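Entry:
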Amino acid sequence: MSAILKAAGLCFLLWSFPVFAQEDQESEVPQPRHGIAMHGEPKYPADFTHFDYVNPAAPKGGSVRLAARGTYDSFNPFIVRGVAASGASYLNETLMVSSADEPFSMYGLVAESIRVPEDRSWAEFTLREEANWHDGEPITVEDVIFSLNILREEGHPIYRQYYADVTDAEKTGPRKVRFTFSEGENLELPLIIGQLPILPKHYWEERDFTRSDLEAPLGSGPYRVADFEPGRHVAYERVEDYWGKDLPVNKGRYNFDRIRYDYFRDETVIRQAVKAGEVDFRQENQAKAWALDYDTPAVEQGRLVMEEIPHERPTGMQGFVMNTREPVFSDPRVRRAMAYAFDFEWSNRNLFFGLYDRTESYFSNSELASSGLPEGRELELLEPYRGQVPEEVFEEEYFAPSTDGSGWPRQNLKMAFELLEEAGWVVRDMELVHKETGEQMTFEIMIYDTAFERVVLPYVRNLRRLGIDPTVRLVDTSQYVNRLRDFNFDMTITSWGQSDSPGNEQRNYWSSAAANMTGSRNLAGIQDPVVDALIDEVIRAGSREDLVAATRALDRVLLWGHYVVPHWHSRVDRLVYWNKFGHPENPPLHGFEFDNWWIDEDRARRLREGDEMVESPADEQEG
């Protein structure tokens, strides 16, 4: 899913007038524009040459070795079957591309311009004449219409929901395609149709799109598949005559001649490969590993760099998610009790070296996160649902249960007991049983990463203190993905990424329609008409202020539904890499982007010769 939501440009996803830069206010006919913003005007004017957070003079060349975990059996990231190879998203382009230093603005990629009326009831794109596939065939309007249809009909279920409000796609000129949207205030639609991955009709109409196989598909992006060995590696080579290499949205990006992903069994082996010089770059997401696993002379010598890059992007929600489709978690009091059994403070102190902050919002680290009590526009949105949502929504600020970090959360377990008793569970013979059936509470916690065992096992210890009989099930990546798709789990660990401008993707996360849609991200199985209504408010928000209010209201209702036991987040990206790279001094607020890096030949030479390189890796970078 992350390949769809992040790499394919859907991740990230996501209001106010005027919409366009340099809008002709006197004309009733919408004019073609280079970009579109969700709120106000795009940051970058029509004559911009590159994004501010790249080095437009970055040299091209060199190769980089990256690591992936598990295996793959497909190069198609757009279907529900199989596991797509890392980097598969490099192969296909979208109509437009978003910038990383704005909440949600998009600029032409395959499309050179966009036209939309003031009510955003339709959007018309003009394709670039120079845009072509790797076989030399031009990208056509027919390709665009074909892409929408095949993704909705045969692609991953997310596309069916994501583009559900696109009612028509028609050719309006040799290089023009117009999308018509269903009635209603869904101002995001022109932008999300701009995220449509474009697929070659002449290639796919002769093949089974739903089949998971390892035929490298025809693409139009900056890289093509160079070679691969299933389960071991996949390599991509930069397309020298890539049609979009000189576009402003691509300047300073896609600088490596060759990108290779080697596959490893688990994260521990990957870290050993990094230290051995077999992997050039890794984003380290485990606090313990960051603190302890890179104590090596190469780091002291400055040859292997450990760098923290701050970011201001929403960190979303990670946590133990409970499947409310299962009877054991159908009662919100039981779900709330589960949160009292998790001792974050102990885990942060003893496992994470104090490197994390507690997550207390589905939109953490952003202005979209709810706080205090609802007021103003947010309160107006919630008032009609008084009596349909917990009273705490109006009367209490949400805080995740906290402890003294001693490892014996006595008061929290007492609160958990009280909630469980209210829900019909009692202790008999040291077991928590249902007072009517006498059956002990038991459920399975499914994980796929051994690194989470050190988090899960202390949690299990506290659950057993409550008389619960939980089990931990470690599965491989493929089984984990398949079981999530079928909602075949009791409790697991997952995360939902968020953007600065949430919108239609929230339906896939929380809506009743997605609750029983195979492959959706509504893992908790939420079926709440209030949540559905608030998602609609988010989608049709007409201004940034309305969007913030609606998102906070949605956040508050989700939190008091107790669907997850919240985990933690970090406000920095932790990177480990061999000192052969250059990168911009000014990464975007959303965090680093590896596609903006390049090989610094001087550093690469010094690294090969074994020189010490103790200066800061950013000291000599070009902006």
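The first strand starts at residue 35 and ends at 37.
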